[in-house]
Amino acid sequence: MAIFEKSLQSKVRIDDTDTLVCLLENAQSINKHTEYILRVQKGPNKEKTCVSRRYRDFAVLNTNLQQANIDLPIPPKKLIGNMQPSFVAERQIALQNYINEVLKHQILALSLPVRSFLDPNNYSLSIAEQALQTVSIALRGSGQFDLKSPLPDIGWRIRKQYFLVNESESGSNCILSYQSYGPDHCLHVKDLQAAFKSLQNISHPYIADILAMNTLETGAYVVRRIYKNGSFRDLLYGTEYNKNHLAKYGNPKTRKPFTNGQISHYGYQILQALKFLHSKGLPHGHVHPGNITVDNQSALLLDIENMLLGVPSLYRPYVLDVRRANTMESVDVYCFGRTLYEMAFATPLQQYYCDDYPDNIPQDLESVLRLCLSSGSCKQDLPTLDTLLHHPLFTRATLNGLTPRCDRRPHLKFPLNIKEQIKTAVGVVEDRIQADQKAVRAARKEVRIQEILNSEEEMKKQKKRAKKRSSVWKSSSSLAEASRSASGASSPTLTPIPIDTSANSSFRADSSLNTGNTADNTPSNGATLPPGSSASSRGALLSDICSFDRSRLSRVTSSLS
């Protein structure tokens, strides 16, 4: 039984933020219906899986995604003639366009309907039921909280489920979140429980309190009070915290950007909370508008336990494109910049960098966004938390009388051995980020090479180069042939002369007759034939004559009448 549970744990510890790429490879007719073969690639890995889907499966997926209020180009259903090869080919192209449009929206690509559609082996539709069973058993033994009802799909994480619970002593309602361990989880259960004990006693004016937290076999649960205003994202889009996240954030009708004063006010508080966590050796790593709430005009950071659970960040696919986001501080700075962007424009940034901003944006806000999100910063260097805290946008917040509440003195203390374990866990997260960044760059480089090689322009250039090389070769070969023929015509073959040391004069006469030149007995290279030359000397003379280059001669006007 223990072996089965261990294999089950390792099976579900996958990165749910991996970018999906889907290609409809083929279509086949089976039992009077058409099935489409989908090849799916996850993240920077080259491993691909294949899954077979019918048109009705696409239709069911589209129905599940309609609550996001995003227009998706699914092809219409056809009852007659849907088995004809021409129609199947057209529909395959249309379905490819449909799935491309779905995966273009991150909120859809991260949803359980899409993941289970493309990767059914790793994404079961019964994840919520399993979490409910696990939490029910855990709370039954504690007696501190009573389970009231689940809050389905209020967050983007597939393996994080929310429940409404009631505290037994006070009778107040609270919210419980159960999260399965992620792919970067490496802490032993005892060490994790000790770290949780310290986190439960945390005190900071800009970090939300934790009422209870406990480790389980396959995950952990955390209990916090309910903040009626919801998260920053709920405020931005004018919605309630307990609604379905696809309906809330897919294509919201209401958008309420924060004012520049609010961005300065809340941004300073978030930076203070992040700096405090880093000073204790526990980076956040998951900053986004859904992890920040507001209470009495103070921003409160949520989900500080995610780093210990080893779960990936919402912005991880973008972090992999940022060369300089290779430490947890730089990751927090980059995610903070994306958070400010969404606070300012009430829409998430759709790419990993931003260089263009509206003309009416305040100058100091644009300066901070460029520090965190410009293409130059992403490639060269990102600022530190201290650098941002000293930026005029946030120093102005302190001048406005923004100081921590005196009753919330910052406090967080880990045992020494737990500090070392947390440091190791942070290193595991950083190592995987850096490895995936290298894999993404290598994959992008390979794609660029293939695009260059396959581009029509490059093919034309290669053909031109080939023609040029061919013409040069032909011209050089024709010149060599002409040179050889000319040398052969002007240099008749010498008749062999018997070797005789006493026949120097007759040899010179014969040479003069054969070359047709009685005025000069000197070969073309200027060397004078010595008297009594041997057969090797005559061979050298013949070689010089054959290799004679007539192009080096210049015309000389004779002075003889």
UniProtKB/TrEMBL annotation:
Residues 14-125 form the PX domain. GO terms for cellular component: early endosome; late endosome; plasma membrane. It is found in: Cytoplasm. Residues 134-414 form the Protein kinase domain. Residues 501-527 have a biased composition (Polar residues). Gene3D superfamilies: Phox-like domain (3.30.1520.10), Transferase(Phosphotransferase) domain 1 (1.10.510.10). Keywords: Cytoplasm. It comes from the Eukaryota. Residues 461-471 have a biased composition (Basic residues). Residues 458-539 are annotated as: Disordered. This is (African queen) hypothetical protein. The lineage of its organism: Eukaryota, Metazoa, Ecdysozoa, Arthropoda, Hexapoda.
